[in-house]
């Protein structure tokens, strides 16, 4: 199950969060290759957050998935999620950081 957790200093009052959640869910599902009903999105607004020493709109995201994460997938996630946040929350893509974790990385196959 991919889980995307985003914290932002943007106030979410008055934001169409249904549309935001829908766009993020669809993007993660398509890019990671998992069904939408397996995708979890957490969004925290009005977080005390600075980036580059100022409090202009910014966001930090973390996505954790069990497999499906390649270098190309990481690039697509960063670009697509960044575009959604820019469109929906007016957060410039240059003020968004995404940490990507694949829980299956580093696992060794059991020896038979």
UniProtKB/TrEMBL annotation:
UniProt-listed Pfam families: MIF (PF01187)
SUPFAM superfamilies: Tautomerase/MIF (SSF55331)
Gene Ontology cellular-component annotations: extracellular space
GO MF, any single term: phenylpyruvate tautomerase activity
Entry similarity comment: Belongs to the MIF family.
Name of the protein described by the UniProt record: Macrophage migration inhibitory factor
Organism, scientific name: Sesamum alatum
């Amino acid at each position: 199950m991919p889980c995307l957790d985003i914290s932002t200093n943007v106030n979410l009052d008055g934001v169409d969060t249904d549309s935001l959640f829908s766009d993020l869910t669809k993007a993660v599902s398509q890019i990671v290759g998992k069904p939408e009903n397996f995708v979890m999105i957490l969004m925290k607004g009005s977080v005390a957050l600075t980036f580059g020493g100022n409090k202009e709109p910014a966001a930090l995201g973390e996505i954790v998935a069990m497999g499906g994460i390649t270098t190309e997938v990481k690039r697509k996630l960063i670009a697509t999620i960044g575009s959604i946040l820019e469109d929906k929350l007016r957060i410039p893509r240059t003020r968004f950081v995404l940490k990507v974790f694949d829980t299956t990385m580093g696992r060794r196959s059991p020896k038979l």
